[in-house]
Amino acid sequence: MMVAAGAILLSAFLLFLVQPLMGRLITPWFGGSAAVWTACLAFFQTALVAGYGYAALSLRLLSPGLQRLLHLGLLAASLFFLPILPGAAHKPTDSHDPLWEIVLLLLTSAGLPYMLLASTGPLAQAWLAGTGRLPWRLFALSNAASIAALLAYPFAVEPWLPLHVQALAWSAFYGLAALMVGALAWWTRRPREHPVSSLPAHTHDEANEESRNRAAWLLLAALPTAMLVATTEYLTRDVAPIPLLWIPPLALYLLSLVVWFDGRLPFHRLFWSFAATAAVLVMARVMTLVRFRFETTVLVPLFLAGLLTLCLYCHGELARRRPATQRLGAFYFTMALGGALGGLSVALVAPLVLDAHYDLAIVLAATSMPLALGAGTFGRPLLKTAGLACAVLALAAGLYGVRHVYRADRDGLVSQQRNFYGTLHVVDLDKRTPEHRRELHHGIILHSLQYLAPERRYEPTIYYQPESAVGLAMAMLPDRPRRIGVIGLGAGTVAAYGRPGDDIVFYEIDPAVERIARRDFTFLADSKAAITIVPGDARLSLEREPSRRYDLLILDAFSGNAPPLHLLTVEAFATYIRHVAPDGLIAVQVSHKFLTFDPLVLAAVDALGWAGAPVVDEGMSEWVVAARDRARLQVPPLGRALKPVTTADVRPWVDDFIDILRLPWR
Prior knowledge:
Elements: H1 2-26, H2 34-61, H3 64-78, H4 99-129, H5 136-157, H6 163-187, H7 207-239, H8 247-261, H9 269-286, H10 296-320, H11 328-353, H12 359-366, H13 368-375, H14 381-407, E1 413-419, E2 422-429, E3 437-442, E4 445-451, H15 469-475, E5 483-487, E6 503-508, H16 511-520, H17 523-526, E7 530-535, H18 538-544, E8 550-555, H19 570-578, E9 580-589, H20 598-607, E10 611-615, E11 623-627, H21 630-633
Parallel strand pairs: 5-6, 5-8, 6-7, 8-9
Antiparallel strand pairs: 1-2, 2-3, 3-4, 9-11, 10-11
Helix pairs in contact: 1-2, 1-4, 1-5, 1-6, 2-4, 2-7, 2-11, 3-4, 3-6, 4-6, 4-11, 5-8, 7-10, 7-11, 7-12, 8-10, 9-10, 9-14, 12-14, 13-14
């Protein structure tokens, strides 16, 4: 039993440790977007289906001896995929939708090891059942190990180990897990005459009842995963877009499996039906209230608690329907298939068919289906009516959320579109007044603004107005034709500063942003400068280009309301410096609702021998401006707007080591 527990626990630990690790490794290549993590979640859920499917087919079609030989042979072959460091050949070279590039990268880097780790649980439990032992508790323990891995990564792994060491250590422990599975295969090679799989299960035992249950298994597995992906995307996109928030939702999802499959706690269906309905009502209402839009201390715990409650209901119903152990493989495969369908519906299908982020509201409405499914199994009419009432309330609350998302900003809506990088919408406000303006929003974040009155359409606005750090830096540039680089296009507001002979180069990863800037705004068309737009990730583009010798390089790339972390490392700034003229300036927007980035940026430029200082901005943003010589920063008007800040004990980020936990919170 100890050998089985060790193999299953280590496999489960590695199975979920690799998810944040691979996310951290590849996110910088695809713009640092929260959608990269959503794509990783969907891929790993699908790979879980492949692993469980392989286990189910192996258990059904092969003899116990052939099962072991095949599995050990595949484990040996998977060692050739180690270490799991993605190759540079997978770095994207353009700005098209990168979803399938991410899938291919993950498949070739960690696909086979991950699939085999996923299959180890059901195979080992089936082998153990063949020796006369009940395996259900091992399923709960494996999920506990998965939770431990998710919690260990941000607190015990990422803050202490560079990325390449993390990948090498994971690969070494994978080799150990393969050896332990081999030992388990040898130890369980001789099953008993009357294994536990021939005994009746404590729930539904008949084969025809299992067939009727397959659809229920599928639904009860799909809804929690869809809720997991939708909630994670909502929190990391609009509430607090930081990678740390990738971890808690997945940990809570796994915790709900541990609670019921451990088998020690009773599942009171009526109570959990009421609790799940209450969670849907509260989440649907709060997501529509503007006053809570940036209240992280309210939204994060509330939505995490709601996610846990809904997962506890669905997984409780799922555990209640688990079959006899001889049908273990089919049960796990159906669970994984349902989970993959739920995750893919949000990560892949929703961006293709929906023009805004209706995902969470739709999933809240869909909770009516498992609630109705549970209500149908109540024997007493009064309880059945109460259960159906819960389903109706959940459906109404979810549809209320969908209606709110649809109606938001519909007054004055100019255009709206959604792709891998998020939802962009353009609105006209204050029509027929001197303040008539057009705004570009990414999710709930205002990114650009242009006044539409003829006498005001040329004004640089909000983050780039003349009193801003960018405006002050522009005033310091020479009178000759200037070269200006801008990371992050938005509506192209910086082009309003263009003069005849100037060259302004924008770097933009989202092709939809360029279409909107050219179609719905006039900054680019009105500019007197020569405008160039380079598609793709700015850092990768700059790494490939020869030095452009910019007089001013502006970093204003945001994912939600957070700067992509890979643009703030020492190596990133070394690339920027290579592209700046000897007397040039670098301006970095560091605005964030919750975190303080300016000491980090200052530490990075200081590590490269440059001087930097935060700028007191009279606009809506916070900036750090850097130059080769501190005397360059002291020149008015910029010099009068600088503010002191200490970078003592601040460790700059490098590509191989980013520790967001040590960033100061506001």
